[in-house]
């Protein structure tokens, strides 16, 4: 299928560009350092926590906190989701904007592929890259599974929540790249939209507004439930809806390219 | 573009001439399936590929102006990516890739990144990508750009060879000599309209030159 030919081409481009490797290396180094600190804090408090009847364990205080700082209330900044807010726009900025500036986008159109399939092919490549990144990050807390008691269900729900958040950020990045003629513009636009979507409820609360719709609109609201180990279909649907809206807008913009000279 | 009708037979080489902005590249982009016309039909072997865009994938090869490439991919990776996008894979792709690398003298550049190729090499790679899947129709926008005289002669020979094998070729160029050297037919576009479409006359170059300048100068006089 030619959709996978687009995915394969984009993956190749992602893996040969130094930026992808630099992003992955920096992010994993930061997560490794964060893990070591979280583990140290956990070990210092282990005896006190063990005395509590329903006290949090390794999964709550180390594994899940690796994924997010903002939502889990971790004392250390920059969990995986906060890093992704900054790094995913850098990863996705070139997916379509660079095709447009290099003049290779018409070549893709000439293969008879529809705009939606071109965009979907690109998005799949980004999703594969993000899934690999998440798997490597997941391997860090799981590496101690033989020595600690892991709550596999809670970890699976938190991993799903993180994956869905990454998928939304990837979709926003690809859509912004479809709208932009320059990669840098795509990166800035994706960063602004991602930050706004993640923190819109916080901003509203700071302004004294506590609105149910604004809370529902914020990505962090839906991530929070999943990071607590609760998989709700309403939250999963929100993520799927956000991905669909971003990809549909990106497809519309890409289709317009085929109509104009 | 307005009311443009062109018909091309298998094995024919059509030269598309016109001054800058005449609509040559736009026409070729529409024929190649990269740009969608507001109305009309583009038929390939009797089938409308605006209705069935997947026909274009296998039957058309396109070299746009200035041969756009992915700078981070090697020559070999370009050919493989183009092959997969055109629906060929496996042994067929390997054979097709090796054949065009050989035919366009790119074999010793196969592991070089496209971003560091010279203009002439880029143009040859673009042409290799366009003809990789042996399309029935080859659409070439200024293919001789940046080629040295030896490569230009080799390109003419290649186009004649492809035409003799049954490939239809549309060739857009500014060079009248290019048209007289390889084309069976010539079409002249001016301000988005077809002004001339006929087989090349027997006295070729002089007649073509007269026709072309008559159309171009009449257009300018009208504009003035």
Q: Beta-strand level of the residues of chain A, as a percent range? A: under 5%
Q: Main sheet of chain B, how many strands, which sense, barrel?
A: 6 strands, mixed
CATH architecture of the domain at 13-68 and 136-223 in chain B: 3-Layer(aba) Sandwich
Q: Which outline of chain B best applies?
A: globular
Computed Rg of chain A: 20 Å
Overall, the morphology of chain A is globular
Mean pLDDT of chain B: 89
Quote the distance from N terminus to C terminus of chain B.
21 Å
Domains counted in the coordinates of chain A: how many?
A: 1
Number of strands of chain B: 8
Subcellular location (chain A): Membrane
Protein name (chain A): ABC-2 type transporter transmembrane domain-containing protein
Main location (chain A): membrane
Keywords (chain A): Membrane, Transmembrane, Transmembrane helix
Describe this structure in words.
The complex is a heterodimer of chains A (261) and B (224). By secondary structure, chain A is an all-alpha fold. Chain A has one domain. Chain A contains twelve helices and no strands. Chain A has helices at residues 2-16, 18-51, 58-67, 80-92, 94-102, 105-109, 115-142, 152-179, 183-206, 212-217, 219-227, 233-259. In chain A, helix 2 runs antiparallel to helix 3 (58-67). Chain A is globular, with a radius of gyration of 20 Å. Chain B has a domain at 13-68 and 136-223: P-loop containing nucleotide triphosphate hydrolases (Rossmann fold), CATH 3.40.50. With 224 residues, chain B is an alpha/beta fold. In chain B, the strands form two sheets. Chain B has a six-stranded mixed beta sheet with strand order 4-5-6-1-7-8, with helices on both faces. A two-stranded antiparallel ribbon of chain B has the order 2-3. Chain B is globular, with a radius of gyration of 18 Å. The chains are: A mainly alpha (261), B alpha/beta (224). The A-B interface holds A 2, 5-6, 8-9, 12-13, 16-17, 102-104, 106-114, 258-259, 261 and B 26, 29, 32-36, 49, 53-57, 60, 62, 64, 66, 68-73, 77, 81, 84-87.
């Amino acid at each position: 299928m030619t959709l996978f030919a687009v995915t394969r081409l984009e993956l190749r481009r992602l893996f040969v560009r130094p930026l992808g490797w630099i992003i992955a290396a920096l992010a994993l180094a930061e997560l490794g350092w964060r893990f070591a600190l979280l583990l140290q804090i956990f070990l210092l408090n282990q005896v006190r926590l063990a005395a509590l009847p329903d006290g949090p364990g390794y999964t709550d205080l180390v594994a899940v906190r690796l994924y997010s700082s903002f939502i889990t209330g971790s004392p250390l900044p920059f969990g995986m989701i906060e890093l992704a807010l900054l790094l995913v726009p850098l990863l996705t900025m070139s997916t379509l904007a660079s095709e447009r500036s290099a003049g290779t986008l018409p070549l893709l159109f000439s293969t008879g592929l529809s705009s939606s399939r071109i965009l979907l092919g690109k998005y799949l490549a980004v999703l594969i890259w993000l899934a690999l990144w998440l798997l490597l990050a997941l391997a860090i807390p799981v590496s101690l599974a033989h020595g600690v008691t892991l709550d596999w269900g809670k970890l699976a729900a938190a991993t799903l929540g993180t994956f869905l958040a990454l998928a939304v950020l990837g979709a926003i990045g690809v859509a912004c790249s479809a709208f932009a003629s320059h990669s840098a513009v795509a990166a800035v636009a994706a960063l602004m939209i991602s930050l706004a979507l993640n923190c819109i409820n916080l901003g509203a609360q700071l302004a004294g507004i506590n609105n149910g719709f604004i809370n529902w609109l914020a990505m962090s609201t839906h991530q929070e439930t999943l990071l607590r180990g609760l998989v709700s279909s309403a939250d999963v649907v929100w993520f799927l809806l956000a991905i669909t809206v971003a990809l549909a807008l990106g497809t519309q913009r890409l289709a317009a390219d085929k109509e104009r000279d | 573009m307005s009311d443009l009708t062109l018909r091309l037979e298998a094995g024919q080489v059509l030269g598309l001439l016109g001054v800058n902005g005449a609509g040559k590249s736009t026409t070729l982009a529409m024929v190649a399936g990269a740009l969608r016309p507001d109305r009309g039909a583009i038929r390939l072997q009797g089938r409308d590929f605006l209705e069935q865009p997947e026909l274009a994938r296998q039957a058309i090869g396109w070299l746009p102006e200035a041969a756009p490439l992915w700078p981070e991919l090697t020559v070999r990776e370009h050919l493989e990516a183009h092959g997969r996008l055109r629906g060929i894979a496996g042994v067929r792709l390997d054979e097709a890739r090796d054949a065009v690398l050989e035919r366009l003298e790119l074999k010793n550049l196969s592991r070089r990144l496209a971003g560091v190729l010279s203009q002439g090499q880029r143009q040859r790679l673009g042409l290799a990508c366009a003809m990789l899947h042996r399309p029935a129709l080859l659409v070439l926008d200024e293919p001789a750009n940046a080629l040295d005289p030896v490569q230009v002669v080799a390109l003419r020979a290649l186009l004649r060879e492809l035409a003799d094998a049954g490939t239809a070729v549309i060739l857009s160029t500014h060079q009248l000599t290019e048209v007289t050297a390889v084309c069976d037919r010539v079409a002249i576009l001016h301000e988005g309209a077809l002004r001339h479409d006929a087989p090349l006359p027997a006295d070729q170059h002089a007649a073509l030159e007269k026709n072309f300048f008559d159309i171009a100068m009449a257009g300018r006089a009208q504009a003035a």
